[in-house]
Structures
1.
Amino acid sequence: MNRNLPVLRPGDWVTYCTGDHQVVALAGTAVRLRSPEGTEIVVLASHLMAAPDFSVTGTEPLPELEPFGLLDSVPDAALAAAREWERHVVEVQSGLPPDPQPDSAPRPEYDPAVRSLAERDAAKAAELGVGVRSIQRRRYAYAQQGLWGLLDHRAARLSTATGRADARLVAAIEEVLATETNASTGTRSRLIRRVVKAVENTHGPGVVPLPGQSTFYKLIDTLSTGRHTFGSAVTRRQTANRPQGQFTPTFAARPGEQVQIDSTPLDVMVVLDSGQTVRADLTIAVDVATRTICAAVLRPMGTKAVDAALLLGRMLVPEPMRPGWSAALRMASSRMPHMRLLDADARMEQAAAKPVIVPDTIVIDGGQVFLSDTFTRACNRLGISVQRARPRTPTDKAIVEATFSSINTLFCQHLAAYTGPNVSRRGERVEEHAAWTIPELQDLLDEWLIVGWQARPHDSLRDPYRPRQAMSPNDKYASLVAACGYLPLVLRSEDYLELLPVAWRTVNDYGIRIDHRTYDSADLGPWRRQPSGNTAKRGLWEVHYDPYDLSQVFVRTQRGWITVPWIHQPLVNAPFADFTWQHARRLAAAAGLDDTQETAVARVLDNLLTRAHHGPDKRTARIVGRTRAGAATHRPPAPRTEPNPARTDNDDTHKPAATVVPFGVFDAHAEADRWL
C-alpha cells in the first residue's frame, strides 16, 4: 500500500501546536500523541486536523478542490481545451479515458499492466507532438488542482474586470476617480485627459501602453461602476461617505432608550406675515424603539439653539387636542394604555393619541444648534445623555434621516407650493402657490402626525410572534409598555422657562438691562439693589428670555417667577425677536443714530414693523416675517407671578370698570406723512 496516501496511522509524525508529535494510538475519534520529550496528550481527531499548523510528515499535501465558480467564468473555448487535456492525462494515469464504456480495454501503449508511467508519458507525448516534460507538468497540475490546473490561465486573466490593461494604467484611473468625489461632474473625455497626464508625469511619456478610445471608455466605465462619477454630484459624495465596514442596525428595546434629533429645510414654501415666501426648517425627534415622532417644530429658515431646547419641552408634555380634530384622534380612542397613563397625569384625558416618551439618550449631529449651551444645559437638567454622531457619518442617525424622506413623501408632496427634493424636480413659479403660514402648517403637521404617522403601520416595526404583520408606532408603544412597565414623566408649566436661555443681571432702580433694552415692573420692588444670594454669580439675578419674544423676561426669585415687560413695549406694540432687534440696531446706525440708545432703536423698530406690510426691501420683510412667525408658534405658558406687596385689598383694581369713552389714536407716522 502506498504510504503517501492522505491517511493517518500509528507511528506517523505530525506537526501540531508548533511542535512535532508521533501518533502512538488511535481510539475512535481520539488521537494519542507523544512529543520527543516523552509527554503524551490526547486530542480529538477533528480538533487535530482543523489546527492551522497541522500536517503529516513525509506525505504529499492534500489536493485542492477545483474552483468551480471560476470555471464558469472562463471562455468556453478555453474550458473545452482543458477538458480535452483532462482526457489525455487521465488516460496516461489509469490507461482509460474518463467515463469509459463497459468492458473497455486500455490501448496497448497506455496499459498500466505492461507499460510504466514513464513509457506512457512518452507515448502520449509522441501522440500529441509535444515534449515529455509537458505531459509530466500537466499530470502534476491535474493532481494538485484538477481541471483548473489544465486551464490556460491567460484566458482566465482575460475574464477579469480590467482585461489586459496595464496595471499602472488601472492604478492611475482609480487615483483620478478618487479625486472626482468632491469635484464637479465632468465628462469621460476630461477624465481620460487627466489619466493620461497622471501616467506621463509618473512613468514618463510613452512608457505605459494606452488603449484605444473605445477601450479606454469601457475601462473607465468598468472601474467607475457604483461611484456615480459621471452622474449626480450629491449622490457621488453620499456614496463615497458611506462607511467601509458592515452596516449595523440601530436597535432599542424600550421607548426612549435612544432618540435621534435632526433639523432640515422642509420641501414646502410657506408664507410669512410680511408676504415673503420662504422654506421652513423642520426639527424632529424620533424614538428608535417605536418610530414615534416625539415632537416636530417648524421655524423660519435658521433654526436656533432655543428651538432645539424647546423641542425637548414638547416631547415631555402630552399633545393636546385641537379644536376641529376628530374624536378618533383622542388617546382614549387608541390602543395605548390610556387609563394607566391617566393615573400618572390628568392631562392625558384631553391628550391626542401620541405617546409621551422620555429619552434616556439623544443622538445629535455636529450642528451648532445642538452643540450650544442652551441645548446641552436643558438635557443635563432633564437627566438626558447626549451622544454626538461621528462627523460626516449620517448612518449613525439613519432613522431620523430616513424619517425626513418619509415626511416629504407622505406629507409634504400633497401640500401647496411643494418644491420637490431638488431643483430638477421643482415646478414653475412654486412660490406663487404658497398658501400656508408657519402656524397653520404647524397645526396641519401636528394633526397629520397623529392620524397619518402614529396610526400607520411601519415596515420596521414587527411583533416577534407575528413577524409578517407590521405594527404602527402607537401599537409598538403599547406592546413595549406592557413588556417593560414604562411610564412617562411629564413637565410642569413652569418647566418651559427652565429651557429658555439665561442671562445674569443686576436688578437696579431702573430695572434690568439686557442688550441695551430695559425691563421693569412694580413686582421688582422688593428685589431692587438686592443681591440674589448666588455667590457663584457674584449676587446677580437669573433672568430667562425668549429669543422669539423679547417683549418680556422672566426673573427667578426666592418666591417664584416674575414676568417683567420691556418699558418701551407700548411704543412698539408688537412682539419682536432677537434678530429683529439686532436688525433695528443696524438700521439705526445706518441712519446716523446711536444704536446703543434704547429709545432711538425702539422708534426704528416701530417704524420697521409699521412699514413691513409694504415691503420696503426683501431683507426687512424677511426679518419681520420671521419675527411674527416665531412669536405665533413660540408663545410660552404664563408662569406664576409674585403679587405686588405695595398693593392692598382697597386698590382700585377691584372696583368695577367704568364706562370707556373711545378716542382716536394718534399715529405719529400718519401725521408726519399728512404734513409732508
Note: Residues 167-240 form one domain.
2.
Amino acid sequence: MDYTPAGYNDFDAHLKTLQDQGLLYRIDRAIDKDAEMHPLVRWQYRGGIAEAQRKAFLFTQVTDAAGRTYPGAQVAIGALAGNRRIYALGMNRPEDAIGQAWLDAIAHPIDPRQVQQAPCQEVVITGDALRAGQGLDALPIPVSTPGYDTAPYFTAALWVSRDPETGIQNLGLYRGNLKAADRVAVMMERSTLAGGAVHWDKYKKLGQPMPVAAVLGAPPIVAFTGPQKLPLDCDEITVAGGLAGCPINIVKCKTQDLWVPAEAQVIVEGFIATDALEPEGPFGESHGYMALEEYNFSMTVTAITRRTSYTIASIISQVTPCESSVIKKVAYEPLYLAHLRDHLNIKGVTRVSMHEPLTNLRRFLFLSIARGTPKTEIWRALEGAASFTPAIGKFCVAIDEDIDPEDTDHVLWALAYRCNPAVDTHVIPHRGKGHGPAFKGCEIDSTMLIDATAKADYPPVALPKQEFMERARAIWEELQLPRLTPQSPWCGYSLGDWSEEWDACADRAAKGDWLTNGRRSAANRSRTAQPQDQARAIRLGDQD
C-alpha cells in the first residue's frame, strides 16, 4: 500500500482510543440489527443518562431478524458524537478548542493527497456479484426506528458528488434508504441547499445521471465535515485536511470518476438517476417526528469496495438529544458566533447556543449578550442570526450572560421577567418551513426575534451568597448525604440594583445581629411613604 496515514485516526484507531478512555461499550453477544440494536442504544438518550456519561457501542456479533450473521463485520453506534468528549477525541483536540479548530480549518484548508491503493478497496464487488448475495444486503446496516422505518438506512454515510461545472466535490451527510441489493434511495434536503441536491439539479439540466459514492466509516475528522455548514464551492475534504493539519489520503473510485477517503471502511459507488424519482421513507427524523414517504433520489449501485474486516458506522438520530444533534451543535455554534462577532462586527455577542432536546437545534437560537450592549446592536444580532442560513433560527432569543442558555428553565426565567412582548418581540414573515413535518398549507413559516435581556439593573438572585452555599455543601458532604449535581443558579449574585448598605445589613443578619438592623429601620420611619415604596439604601449612621 502506498498510503501513509498521519495526523489523523481512521475509524478503527478511533474506536481503540474510545476503548482506552473508557468510552466504549463492547457488546459481544448476538444483537439483531433490525429490531434490537438501535433501541438498545436509544435507552442511553431516553433513560435519564447525562450526556457526559454516554458512551459509544460496538457490536461484534451482528445478526438480523432472519438470523443471518455477518462474518468480519461490526457495527458502531455513538462512536462519532455519543457525547462532546467522544467528538473531541475524534477531532484530536480538547473540548474547549473545537470551535477555534473549525474556524482555523475553514480559513486554512489543505488539499488532499491522491493514492493508488487504499484499505477501503481491499475487497471490490461489481457486476453480477452485487445481485448474488454480495450487494447492499450483505452489509449489516441497522434499522433506526423499528416499528416505523420501512428498511435499513445509511445514517452516517458521507455522500460524495461533484459539481459538473466546477469539478469541486462535495461531502454531505444524508440518509440512504436501502431498496435492493444494488439500489438505495437518498434524501438530499433541497430546502437547506444541500450540496448534493444542487449538483443533482445541474446534472438534470445536462440530461445526465449524477455519479455518487457513499462513504461508510470515514475517519472521524473527515466524517465531521459532512454535517458542517460550508460554502457550496468548498471541497470538504480540504477542510478535513485543515482540521488534521495534513493532507487527507484519497483514492479514486473503481467505477465512478470520484475521489473518496482512502482509510474509509466501506464505499458504495453508483449513479443517481436525474430522469426519475423513487418513493423514500418513512424514516424517523431528527425533528422528532416520522418523515413520511415522499419522492427522493434513486441510486443504482455499480460497486461496493471495503476492507476485508470492516465496521459500519451508524448514528443515533430521530428525537433529540441524539448523536446527530451533538455533531451539529459543536460545529454550528462557533460558526454562528464567528458570523456575528467577526463578520457582522457585533462585539456584544459572547455566545451562541442551539437548543437541543426535542427541538433539534434549528428552531431556537439563544444569543448571550454582554451587559451594556446597545439595544440597536442586540437587534442587529437577532436579525443577523435569523438570516445566516435558511434552516436555522425560527426563534432567536437574546439573553444576558447570567442566563444559562443550556438550561431552558433559565431562558424561560428571562422571558418571564426581562421581556415585554409588546415591545421586545418582532415577527418576520415569509420564512421557509425548513426541516420539519410537511403539512399542506404550511409551506411558508415565519421568524420570531425576542429581546429577553434586562433593560435595567435588577435586584440580586434570591439565593444565599456563594460563601454560604459552599459552606453548607461542605457540611452536606461531611454528612454523606446524596451526591449533589448543582443546577444553575445555585447561589445568589448581584444584578446591579443593590447597595453596600444592604450588604452591611445582610452581613449583620448572617452574624446574628439582626436587632441592629431593626434599630436602623426604626430610625428611618416615614409619615409620607406609601406601602411598598422602596427605601433606597438609607444609610444607618451611628445607631449603636
Note: The chain has three domains: 11-314, 344-451, 499-544.
3.
Amino acid sequence: MSYTELQVTTNFSFLRGASHPEEMVEQAAAYGYTAIAITDRNTLAGIVRAHAAAKKLGMRLIPACRLDLLDGPSLLAFPTDIQAYAQLSNLLTVGNLRTEKGKCDLYKADVYQHAIGTKFIVLPPASLNQVFDFDDSFKNAVHEYRNLLGEQLSIAASRSYSGDDAKQLHRIFQLSRQLHIPMVATNDVHYHHPERRELQDVVTCVREKCTIYTAGFRLHANAERYLKPIDEMHRLFRQYPDAIAQTQVITEACTFSLDQLKYQYPKEITSEGRTPQQELTFLTWQGARQIFGDNIPEKVKANIDYELAFIEQVNYAEYFLTVYDIVRYARDQKILCQGRGSAANSTICYCLGITSVDPSKFDLLFERFISSARNEPPDIDVDFEHERREEVMQYIYRKYGRDRAAIVATVTQQHHRGAIRDVGKAMGLSVDTIQRLAGLIWDFRDEGFDKDRIISQGINPDDPTIQKVLQLTEQYISFPRQLGQHTGGFVITQGKLADLCPILNARMEDRTNIEWNKDDIEALGFLKIDVLALGMLTCIRKAFDLVKQHYNLDLTLANIPQDDPAVYEMVSHADTIGVFQIESRAQQSMLPRL
C-alpha cells in the first residue's frame, strides 16, 4: 500500500515551516512518493514552486492549503478539479480582502459557500488534552462539518509522541466511527529533514518574540515533524491501515493540476468591428503616417509588415493593444512616459507611441525584443513620471476591475543581516554581539562564513553558540519573509483573476496584488505588463514646461534634438548624476573609458 503526505507546512507559512517547497518535494521523491500535498496556512503562495519541482522529478503535486478559521477547527482543503480550485482561490480572496495585508479572516460560513468539489480534513486542535477528553466544542464543530460537508470530510490523526499516542489515536478512531467520518493519517510535516528542527525552533521564537531559553511549550516537543519514509508511516499506523488507505482515496480524487490553469488575456475593445490584429494593424499604419507623413520609408514599411506578421503568428495583438491603451491614457493626461529596454527595437512600438526611439534610425534588431526561438512573451517596460504613476495604475484598476487586474507579488527574502539579527536574537546573543555580527556578515562562501572577519571583531568563531548561530543563519538565508508588491507588474485577465490565484490587499491604499511572483506566473504562462515609475521623467517633464514657459518651444521625447554634442560631452565626463541606468558608480567609472 502506498502513502501520500497530506499535511505539509513549508516556509511560505511564514515563521512556521522550516523548509522550502522544493525541498519538501525533492525529499518526497527520494523516498519514493508519487504525490505530495502542500498545505500552507491560508495561502497558495508556495504551490507553483512545488509544482515546478514535482514536474522535474516526475511526481504529482496536490495543490491545497490549510484553512485556519476564526470560528471553528482548522481544515485542510484539497480541490479535486479546476472548478474546486477556483472556489478555493476565491475563498482565500474573500478572507484576504476583508482584512489587512498578512491576515486572512475566514469563517465556517465562507467555507460552506465555496465547498463544492473540495475534499476536507478537519484537524484536532493543538491542545490535545481537551480534545481527547471529548471537548464538546470540538465534537460539536466536527458534527456540524459532517452535516454540511458530508462525504467530503475526513478527520486527521497524527502522532504527537507525547507518551499517550495509543490513547489519542484510539479516541480519534472512536470519534470517526461515531460520526461516520474516515480517519486519515498525516504527519503534520514542518520540515523535510530532522536536522531542520533547530531552525524550526528558531523561526518559532522569531514569531513568538521570545528566545530559545524562554520559548517553553511554544516549541514542538521533539524533532518528529519531518517528512517520513512511506514504510515508516505504515509502521506508525499499523493498527489503523484504513487511515493510510484514506490518503490514497483523497489522492486519487484530487485530479487537478496547476497545468490545467488556462490564462486568457483580456479581449481589448476594438473599433468598427475590427479584430485585435486588424486594430493593431490600423493603429500602427495610422501612427506611421503621423510620424513620417505620406512618404513612409521603405525600410519602415518592411519592418512593420514583418513585425505585424510575427505578432499575428504568436497571437500577441491584444497585449500590444493593452500597452498602447495605457500609454494613450497617460498622454491624454499629459503624463510623460517612455518605453524602456528592448521595446525600442520594435517599429510598431515606435509607431504606437510606446517608445520615442526610432529603430530604423539606429538599425536595432527586432528579435532582441521578441523571438520565436526564445518562446517568451514580449517584455514591454513603460516608465511614467514617478509623481503621477499612481494615476495610471488606478486607471488600469478602473478599466478592468479589481477582480480582473492586480499587481504581481514580490517574495521578500531573508538576507544576511536580517537573518543574523533574527537568529542571534532567538538564540539569546547580546545586542552588541548581534550588531557586530550583522555588520560584518555580508557574504558566505561554500565552506561557510569568513572566520577572519569574525575574529577581527573580537568574536570567537569556534564558540559553540556562535557556530550554531552561523549554521542556522546560513540555512535561514533566502527564506521568504513576506509577500510584497512588485514595483509595477500587472496581471490582467479576461475572466476572474481570483479563479487563478488568490488576491490580497497591499499595504498601500487602493492597491491589490496576487500571491504569486513574476517567476511563478512565468512558469504558468501568464503575461504581465510593467507600469514603472521613473523620477528622471518627472524632471524632464518639468524641464519641458520651463522651456515652453521661457522659450516657447514645444519639446517632446520624440522631437528633442537627439544629437546634441553637449549631452555626449557630459556623458563622456561621467557627469550623469540622476540619469537613469548611467548614474551608478560602476557606470560612471566606465563612461569616460567608453
Note: DSSP finds 24 helices and 16 strands in the chain.
4.
Amino acid sequence: MKASDLFIKALENEGVEYIFGVPGEENLDFLESLSKSTIKLILTRHEQGAGFMAATYGRLTGKPGVCLATLGPGATNLVTPAAYAQLGAMPMMMITGQKPIKKSKQARFQIIDVVDMMRPITKYTKQIVDSNVIASQIREAFRLSTTERPGAVHLEFPEDIAQEDCSEEIFDVVNYIMPKPDDKAIDAAVEMIQEAKMPLLLIGAGANRKITCQALGRFVDETGIYFFTTQMGKGVIDERHPQYLGTAALSSNDFVHAAIDAADLIINVGHDVIEKPPFFMKKGGKKVIHVNFDPAEVDPVYFPQLNVVGDITHSVNKITDQLEVQTDWDFSFYQKVKEEVKGHLSKYFQDERFPMLPQRLVNLMRENLGDKDVITLDNGVYKLWFARNYTCYHPNTLLLDNALASMGAGLPSAMTVNLLYPDKKVVAVCGDGGFMMNSQELETAVRLGLNLTVIILNDGAYGMIKWKQEDMGFSDFGLDYKNPDFVKYAESYGAHGYRAESDSHFQEILSRSLSNSGVHVIDLPVDYSLNHPILNVLLKQKTAEL
C-alpha cells in the first residue's frame, strides 16, 4: 500500500481521533490519505495553536494528542508546544514534513535539521527513511509518549517516503502494568509516617490519575492527615475537604508554607522538580518521602530521604492499609493555618471596585461554574490568584501550566476542552499579553462551532513582570503596550464581543455568555494594584505571625 496510507492506518490503530495542524506542500500525500480516514483534521491558524491543542488533548485523555506541520518554519513553530508537553508530562505526537531525502532539486531551501532541533525537548524524535518501518516507529513513538513520565515525541515524514509503496503491517497496541513498589520501601514509609508528630501530604501533577484520586482520598479520610497541592495537582481531592490546607502557588512565605515549615515529614505524592518548587528543602530540616513512578531527581532544593517507586495508586493503597493512626499526631496548628487561609483568601471576594480585583474574579467564576466545568488559564500573575483562591471540586477543572509556564496556551486549551466535553462550560482566562499570542485561533473556534467564553484581563502591560519589577525595587519601565479594540476584534472573527463597564455589568455579561452557544469574548479591566502589597509584603508578615 502507499506509505502515507499506512501512516494513517497506523494512527487509526492507536485510536487517534483528531489531528491538529497547519499542513504544507510536503504533507500533501499525508493529507490525501487523511481525507479518507475517520480521523478528523482540525485546521488551525498557527502551528503553536495546534500544538497546544494536541498537548491538552493528551493531558485530559492520557492518549497522545497529534499535531501536524510542514518543514522549516512550520516545524520551528512547534518548538514551544513541544517543550510545553514535555515539561508538563502531556503525551503528544508531532508529525512534520520534509523535502525528498533521496533526490532533492531545491538544494537547502527551507531545510533545517528538525530531528536534531527536537531532540532536547522530546522523548523520541526520528526521521522516517524507509516506508517499511513506518508502523513500528509509530507504535514506538506512541509507547514512549505515554510511558511514565509522559511527554512529547516527533516523527519527520519526508515527501518521497510518503509516496513509496510498502508492505501493509500494523503492530498491536500492547499495554503494560506499572511495577508495584518494593515492600521494604512501603514498610519504611509507614514507619516514618508513624514516627512523625506532624506529617503532611503534598499532591502533585503526577498524582492526577482517576484511580490515584480515589486512593489519595481514602488515605486522607482514614488517617486524618492534612494535605496541600502543587498548582498542577489541584482538584485531585475535592478542595472542600476538611483536611485541605491550600495550594502552594508560591514557593515560600504563603499561609500554606507556615504549615509546611511546621511539618516534620512531608509525604510527597506525584511531584517532580520540573514544576515550580512548592517548598524548599534544607539540610537537617524536615524529612520527605517521595512517592512516584520514578525515583526523585536530586536537586539543590529537593532531596528526599526515601523513594517509594512504582505505581502510585498501589503505593498509596499499601501505605494506607498498613498505617496505624497515631494518637500523638498533632494537627492543631494545621487547623489554625486553615482558618487563617479561609479568612484571608475570602477577604476581597465581595469587593466590587472596578477595574476588578483578580480575587473578586476568582470568586465570581466559582459562583457561576458547576462542579465539573473547566477554566483554562494562560500564563500571567492572575494564575497565582486562581491557584491560591479557586476551589477545585474535581481533577482537571482548572488547567494551568506550572512547568514551562508558556503564554499563549489558554485559548487553544479551552478549545480542546470543548471538543472533548461539549456538555461542560468552558472559560479561558487570559491576560491581554498572552491572549494576543494566539488570538487568531478565535477564527478556528468559530469555524468549528465551539462553545466557550474567553475573559481577557486587560491591564495594558505584561503584569507578571511588572509585579516582579516592583518587588525588586526597579522603576516601572518597558512593559506597557496598547491593545486593539477587543470587542471589534472578536466580532471580526464572528465571535460575540463585550466590554465590561462595572462589576454588575460583568456579571450580567458572564451569565449571558455561559448560557448561550458560540464563542464569547469579554474585555475585563483588571486591577493589579494589590499584587505587591499582598503577595510580597503582607503574606510575609502574616506567616511570620503564625
Note: The chain has a mean pLDDT of 94.
